[in-house]
Design goal:
Blueprint: E1 23-26, H1 36-49, H2 56-59, H3 68-76, H4 81-96, H5 108-117, E2 121-125, H6 130-139, E3 148-150, H7 163-172, E4 179-183, H8 186-194, E5 198-202, H9 205-214, E6 219-220, H10 228-235
Parallel strand pairs: 1-2, 1-4, 2-3, 4-5, 5-6
Helix pairs in contact: 1-4
């Protein structure tokens, strides 16, 4: 067994065979793309354009699975729909200027290929806007893996509300209890588990305990420490 998946249950035990992975639902930022540092820069630059300077600790708010609307309202207070759309597009444009620096999480492209070859259905459940989410998937050449995409535009409340994962399950036409979520944020793990999904956490050793406490099991550093066969051995 590879490093990082030692939390998987013994596949011989009856308890471990109660769950069969029929589909995998991925978060986007921090799971598929290593975008968090770039988001911090883009949000900081955006907020400065509207005359608001925030410190690094305050910017942590943007990395916990919030929708763009929730982030804008948090920092700027009440806004009209027109302002929300305008400011959201401006922030996305600032992020787009950093696109050349965006990298995928190690091993994720190969992992997606393996899931596809194994016939396991995949969905995306991200708090990002549909425009940005689809743009990112197309830019890195993996959009074909995701027939089901649920974004922050599709739900009234972002993570940790379970709505986004319940909608992903409904669109996949699979029971939440047969799905596996992959998340990097505490709010995302809580969203997935509240919807009834099992959840694997992706994160550094620093964040691993927080993800486990929220309900992720196991927690891996990246996708080089995870394989389809290990999912089947650990959860069936």
């Amino acid at each position: 067994m590879l490093e990082g998946v030692t939390d998987l249950k013994d596949p011989r035990s009856p308890e471990s065979r109660k769950f069969c992975v029929n589909g995998v639902v991925f978060d986007l930022d921090g799971v598929i793309v290593d975008s968090h540092p770039l988001h911090r820069i883009a949000w900081r630059n955006f907020l400065r354009t509207v005359g608001k300077d925030v410190d690094e600790a305050a910017l942590d708010f943007v990395l916990d699975g919030r929708t763009r609307k929730e982030i804008l309202l948090h920092f700027l207070g009440p806004l009209t729909d027109k302002q929300l759309d305008h400011y959201g597009r401006l922030k996305d444009e600032l992020l787009r200027t950093l696109a050349d620096e965006m990298r995928t999480i190690p091993g994720v492209v190969e992992f997606l290929d393996h899931l596809s070859n194994a016939g396991i259905r995949m969905a995306l459940a991200t708090s990002a806007s549909r425009r940005r989410a689809c743009g990112t998937l197309n830019e890195i050449g993996i959009a074909h893996h995701f027939k089901t995409i649920v974004t922050g535009d599709d739900v009234a409340s972002g993570k940790p509300d379970p709505a986004i994962y319940l909608l992903a399950a409904r669109r996949l036409q699979l029971a939440p209890e047969s799905l596996l979520a992959i998340e990097d944020a505490v709010s995302g793990v809580r969203s997935a588990t509240a919807a009834g999904l099992k959840c694997v956490g992706v994160g550094s050793a620093i964040h691993a305990e927080l993800l486990r406490a929220a309900g992720a099991d196991p927690v891996v550093p990246d996708f080089r420490a995870l394989s389809v066969s290990q999912l089947e051995a650990g959860f069936q």
